[in-house]
Write a structure and sequence with these properties.
Blueprint (H helix, E strand, L loop, with lengths): L7 H19 L10 E5 L4 E3 L27 E3 L1 E10 H5 L7 H24 L17 E4 L5 E4 L2 E2 L8 E4 L8 E14 L5 H6 L1 E14 L5 E4 L5 H12 L15 E4 L4 H8 L17 E4 L5
Parallel strand pairs: 1-9, 7-11, 12-13
Antiparallel strand pairs: 2-3, 4-10, 5-6, 8-11, 8-12, 9-10
Helix pairs in contact: 1-3
Length: 302
Amino acid sequence: MPKVTVSPQLMSAIYQGYKTMFNAGLAMGDRFWTDLAMVVPSGDSQEVYGWLGQSTGFRKWIGDRIVQSLMSYDFTIKNEHYENTVGVNRDQIEDDKYGLLGVVFKQMGVDAQQHPDTLIWELIKAGTATLCYDKKPFFAADHPVSDAKGKNTPTANLTNEAGGKPFWYVADNSKVLKPVIWQTRKDYDFVRADAPTDSTVFMRNEAVYGIDARVNAGFGLWQLMQASNQDLTAANFKALRTRMRGIKADNGRPLTIKPTHIYVPTALESAAELLFNRDRIDGGSSNELYNAVKVVVCPYLD
């Protein structure tokens, strides 16, 4: 087989081909985080969310306006740099074998597509120990909530029973703000170092292609998500839903929370579908919880 002439035009064509495969992979698969998280573009190495937990509201206009402060907290999410890089030996290019590697770059696209889910669900699973804006763990039994008179009432978004049963999570994803923040300083970008003057080509006879991003996940409003490791039963769900709907803002106003999604590991898939996806109970009486929430079976919770 004659040797391929490695020209700048060929390397550009190879890069474009690999990038096309990367983009194809990026469009594949399921995303489990998109309803749960609020996407926030970032313009710096970190962002401060001082307004989390603050509630605005109308009042009768008498005299001067009352300015409502939006910077009561110092909750910060730092952007982290992530990369995924592979090398292609130049011999493979000269031997016209580079086309066989397209599937590798398609998989790298899948990896990039799944990376937000990886970070977000790791955060959720660590939510009983990871602090949110009010200096309490995101899932806690004693979040401080003040009423209109300033009286503090410990408020729970966690039911944690002994026994090690799997957790399930109920969220209200209908609000402008969300339970989770997905922060992006630089989105996933496909880059190359394949010119003869690049150090990897000169030292190792290797063209290098990779993806890099500056992103991070952080907690948003704890009020919009509940965690429980009780048995997933109708009674336990109803009790959790009632507690969730009763959560108020710091000024005593109702937050009008309405659970929209339930996230379960695969071990609870059958229980969740029986509760929420069947209009009849055992083929007989109507199911009052039918379509009460959208069931999301999330493998990242396994």
